[in-house]
Design brief:
With 373 residues, this protein is an alpha/beta fold. The protein has 17 helices and 9 strands. The chain is globular.
Length: 373
């Protein structure tokens, strides 16, 4: 919330952004102003700044603060004028409700990829309930006595970058089982907010994810809501939530060691957030593993044994000729290695290795470049 004393700076900031032809001046102006206010108010020299426990600063003090805010805004505008993405300047981006640190070594997480996370997570849960719960009356007893007899589910994020995909899937699954996230809300969201983004499409295995797929997934959770809620309640009553969560393995791979360092830090920071204290027992039962690997090559064979594998990826998929025409804020700043490529490389790597190592792929979900929807 921008304090009322400084709200008149907002139109000025919007005009400055429009003058440099920034494509998202309305949204980003609020973020920039709030960011600068937070940075300045965190300075011990300005400890009485917007402090509700103290009197408001004198008028002269407010004017001085406005001048300081304006000068900081001008520094940011100068950076943005040179096409630096706002997220790189502030060093973070929001994704699926979590804050991820970003720099030039990783792509900036984008809203379209949130759909990929939600759709793939629900698809994995659909598989779990259909194969593990509805067709297995003694699953809870097995969890209680002999978990080793149950096949695990391995979720792999190829080209993890900032770790936003695998960390979000990890947090959403733990939130669903702890009760802090409602499956219905996620299902309703992807059903009602179906994205239409030029030249970006979402695929499962080798085909497009269609409106029909989304509708059927939504209907599945609507139809089975009582059964699913009953299973989750039984898990809680029998104190089996952590054992259930331990059935899942979470892996993020990347060829860039710099990206993996950022991904690891993001995961650890988000997991340790104090507001998640009520989920600590669940989160401590399983960690995300980050592995330096080209595609799946360096993942140990033991990961694939007795496991159903699901792969999620936002791989390099932009054709070279399209890359040359991208907005300078993308082309000149975001890592080319994570942008330019062909999704066929992803699929051939997965299929080749799955045949060689004989592991059981149940689903592949990824973004791709599409000329038409």
């Amino acid at each position: 919330m921008i304090p009322s004393e400084f709200i008149d700076l907002l139109p000025q900031l919007q005009r400055k952004l429009q003058n440099i032809n920034h494509p998202d001046s309305l949204r980003i102006s609020n973020e920039i102003l709030q960011y600068v206010i937070n940075e300045i108010s965190a300075n011990p020299c300005n400890e009485n700044f917007i402090n509700p426990n103290k009197k408001k600063p004198a008028k002269k003090s407010i004017e001085n603060l406005k001048s300081l805010i304006s000068s900081q805004i001008d520094v940011i505008i100068e950076k943005l004028k040179n096409n630096m993405p706002w997220e790189y300047f502030k060093g973070s981006a929001e994704f699926c409700g979590y804050i991820f640190q970003v720099d030039k070594n990783v792509l900036i997480p984008r809203t379209d990829t949130e759909f990929l996370v939600y759709y793939s997570t629900l698809s994995i849960l659909q598989y779990f309930f259909s194969e593990y719960v509805f067709n297995n009356n003694d699953l809870l007893d097995k969890l209680d006595s002999d978990k080793s007899s149950i096949n695990t589910i391995t979720i792999i994020d190829i080209g993890t970058g900032s770790g936003c995909i695998i960390t979000s899937v990890y947090m959403i699954l733990s939130g669903i089982i702890s009760g802090s996230i409602n499956i219905k809300n996620i299902s309703d969201r992807i059903y009602t907010e179906q994205l239409e983004i030029p030249h970006i499409c979402f695929k499962t295995n080798t085909r497009l994810i269609t409106e029909r797929d989304i509708f059927e997934l939504h209907e599945y959770f609507k139809k089975n809501r009582n059964k699913i809620d009953g299973f989750i309640n039984d898990l809680r009553k029998r104190n089996l939530v952590s054992k259930w969560f331990a059935l899942f393995d979470f892996i993020g791979t990347d060829i860039s060691q710099e990206a993996l360092s950022i991904a690891t830090n993001n995961y650890q920071t988000i997991k340790k957030n104090p507001i998640l204290d009520d989920k600590k027992a669940i989160l401590n039962s399983k960690d995300v593993q980050f592995i330096n690997s080209n595609w799946l090559k360096n993942i140990p064979q033991s990961v694939f044994d007795k496991s159903s594998v699901f792969i999620i990826s936002n791989p390099p998929y932009i054709p070279p000729e399209v890359y040359l025409k991208l907005d300078p804020s993308v082309k000149d700043h975001e890592p080319k290695l994570a942008l330019v490529g062909n999704s066929d490389n992803l699929l051939s790597a997965i299929m080749g290795l799955s045949k060689e190592r004989q592991f059981n792929i149940k689903g592949i979900y990824f973004e791709d470049y599409c000329m038409e929807h």
